[in-house]
Structure formats: C-alpha cells, structure tokens
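Running co-folding for flavin-adenine dinucleotide.
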Amino acid sequence: MKRVAIIGAGIAGLSTAYYLYKLSHQRGKPLEIVLIEKEGRLGGSILTERAEGFLMEGGPDCFLSEKPWALQLCRELGLEGEVVGTNQAVRRTFIIWRGGLHEIPEGFMLLAPTSLWPFVKSSLFSLPGKLRMGLDLIIPRKKPDKEESLAAFVRRRLGREALERIAEPLIAGIHAGDPEAMSLQSTFPRFIDLERDHRSLIWGMYQRKRRFLSHLNSPYIMFVTMKKGMGQMVSALEETLSPKTIFMKHEVMGVERVEGDAAGRPRYHLRIRGEERGLEADALVLATPAFITARLLQGIDADIVDQLHTIPYCSTATINLAYRRSQIGHPLDGYGFVVPRLEGLKIMAATFSSVKFPGRAPKGMVLLRCFVGGAKDEEMVAWGNEKLLAAVKEDIAEILRIEGAPFLVRIFRWAKAMPQYTLGHEKRLSLIERGLSRHPGLFLTGSAYRGIGISDCVHQGELTAQEVLKFIKN
Ligand SMILES: Cc1cc2nc3c(=O)[nH]c(=O)nc-3n(C[C@H](O)[C@H](O)[C@H](O)COP(=O)(O)OP(=O)(O)OC[C@H]3O[C@@H](n4cnc5c(N)ncnc54)[C@H](O)[C@@H]3O)c2cc1C
C-alpha cells in the first residue's frame, strides 16, 4: 500500500487527509495516510475553549459562506445542522472614527457602497469624501500594467478617505496586514474582475449583490460558524480518520529525498524529533507555515526555500473578556467594531461574540473578543499578560462604557500565524510551483499560498488530495 505523509494538522492538513481518505476509498484503492502534528492537539489556528459557560474562540470564529468549500465539508461530515449564521437582528458593524463608533452604512460591501441612501446619510465620511467615492462611477478603467497594492487601488478608485476610514481597518481585521504592502491580485482578485467587467466598483458590486440575492433562497448570511465553536469541525474531521493515521506530539525536523521505485520516482524520508528511524513516504504534503516548510525543505531545493522565505507572516493575539451585561453602557447592537490605524488605539478590532453568535455566553453575561497586533502593532503580541490586558481594557472601557473588571479573561497568542500576500505573491507561487515540478510526489498546501480563510484552506486541501491521487495513480 502506498504511503502518503502529511505534515501539519491545521485545517489544510486535516482537509487533505480527509479528502485523500474519501477519494482513495471511492476509487477502491485505499492508501496509508499518516498525518503528523507537532502539538498535542489538532486544528492549528482553530482553537475553541469552554470555561464557566462561555464558548471562546482563540483563532477563527467564523467562515465565509459565499466560498462554498467549508460548508460543503460540513455537509459531508454531517454537521449541516450544526452550522449557525450571525445574529440577523443586529446586522451591523461599527468603525471607530474620531473616538466615536460609526455604523458602516448598510449595503457597504467591503470597500464600496451598494445602497445610496445609507451611504449619503452616513456620519463616517465627510461630504468631499463621499463625492470622491462617487467619482468611482465615472473614473475610467486602468490598463493593467504593473501589479497594484490594495491601498493604491482603493486610493485610485475611491479616494484616500475610503482607504483610511473603511478599507484599511476592515482589511486589517481580516488579514492583520498593511494594505500598502498587500497585493490586490492575491488578496481580493474579484476587485480586479469588477473593474475589468463593470469599470466602476460601486456599480459592479451593486450588480453582483442583486444577482447574488436573487439566486439565494436562504436568508443572506455571509458569515457562519458552528454551534459548538469552530473546534467542532476539527473534532468531526478527526473522527473520520483512523486513530492509526494521526501522530500528535511528533515534530518533523527535516525531510530528505531518497531513492524511490523502479520508475525512478523518489521517496521522502522524514526526520522526527525523538524518533531514531523516522518515516518514509511515497508522497509528501507539507501543510505547515511557509517559514517552517522552508526549514524542512532545506536539503531538498534551495530555490523553493528562497521563495518560501519571501512570504512574510505577522503575529496577532485575541483577548476574550467576559462581563456582566450590566457592566457595559453601550447597547452592543452590532457584531463589533474595527479601528483605523489613524485612531492610535492599541486594539485593531473587537467582536461582540455573544451578540454575533448564539450560545457564547450564559444569560445576563457578555463575551467580547479583542484583536491586537498585526502589521500595525506586532510587538504588542509579546507583551506580558498584565500589560497587554491593561492596554486592551483601557481601549474598550472607554469605547463601550464599561465599568469594573472582567470576571474571566483568556489570552491567545498567535506568533507568525498570518501569512501576508504582499506584492509579487503570484510570481512567488509560480516559482515555487516550477521548483516543485523537479520533485515528483512533493506537495505544499495551506494558508501560505492561495487564500487564508478557512474555506480557502479546505479547498486547497481538497485540490491537494486530488493532485496526490493523480500522482499515485500514474
Ligand atoms: C487569530 C486568527 C483569527 C482568524 N480568524 C479567521 C476567521 O474568522 N475566519 C477565517 O476564515 N479565517 C480566519 N483566520 C485564518 C485561518 O484560521 C487560517 O488561515 C487557517 O486556519 C490556517 O490553516 P492552515 O492549516 O493553513 O495552517 P495552521 O492552522 O497554521 O496549521 C499548521 C499546522 O502545522 C503544525 N506544524 C508546524 N510545524 C510543524 C512540524 N515541524 N511538524 C509537525 N507539525 C508542524 C502546526 O502545529 C499547525 O497545527 C484567522 C487566523 C488567526 C490566527
């Protein structure tokens, strides 16, 4: 039986293992799948914890339903009834501007307004700012010459105010990155399509929204999660795999290419910490962060390693804080808020977790979740608990009019966990792919490459499993 080793049991590695298992059984030719994870738990950035009746997410708290792959996986895992959407009674998010909370106008789709009246009435933008955004309707297309940063694109089409007050904080809330450095093509390629197809972003978004809504039978819920938290997906994936497949607390230290079969195809030997013999595999999938993958492939291909090292990562931390409802003066009538860099606050964003999703806090209690770090303030992630907590509490106490101390706090640090798709990302990926063609049976997958969202990672896992099977069959 052919053996496939997968290093890293985040959602990408787990999805690869699941789809490999499923597809190889469908073909009637089962494989030996070995999933190797250095930690004593599965899920990587996905981490759900329960304490004193609260359900806290350390990493992702939801995924995008518009990208179908994570929902499809939930269906296959029998979890469809466990998927819940955001609370439709308070469908709004706020942005801090000049110290106050302003609602993102209804109909705003990430960067551009698609409903006129809420945008015109909005207190978030100045009159000249609104007029400048409106110019998007007549500004001609730009001929694609060289790659554009996200910031340059937003400034060109919608103006500086749109960038500073809405695009930068919303994008930081997703990628924790700096829009001046981020590649538009690799992070939001659909904006390039919108400009190409409709010229105007506003008009294009409006058309897309209309089409999307008219095709949808269910209520329009963009973000969904699991009733018992995102960890539920991880547990369900684990249950589909045989316990003999999963090796936790096994850190891979290096990979060597060794002589393979009669057809001249190589095999891969994995060095594992504390294991003298290591492990050999006919195909190898690395679902680890790019900088780890670079370290593991050092002895195999210097060009791939060089490219992997150019994918930067940034660090973030999430701080879950539990309060009694009566301690908070703000009505909490939304999903949370994001903070533009210009505001000079320590927090990047905050989610009203127990308002956004059901089942996160006991009755009469509130669970808030704050984000710090990212490209904006990375060094904060290394602060001690006391200093970090003091900074976060100071910011939210003022914004949400909070009195007294939280009675439960949980800090999750994510060192170098968010890959950044900076300018040149696509070129990097094609060089990596060219390099991989020199090593049959070697595959890379995960958030470093073609999408950081949960659904993208599931999709990449599925595609990688298909590639592996194609390779094994040949
Ligand atoms: C704080 C935070 C909030 C987020 N929020 C959202 C959100 O709300 N929605 C969304 O869609 N996405 C969100 N994301 C992004 C998303 O969670 C990640 O992009 C995704 O989970 C990454 O999955 P992955 O499998 O590629 O990598 P990882 O989850 O990083 O998994 C890699 C695995 O490899 C293991 N590993 C590393 N080195 C070795 C080694 N030498 N040997 C063996 N194993 C090794 C690691 O321990 C880890 O388990 C968030 C990310 C973070 C950090």
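Result summary
The first strand starts at residue 3 and ends at 7.
The chain is about 35% helix and 25% strand.
Job closed.
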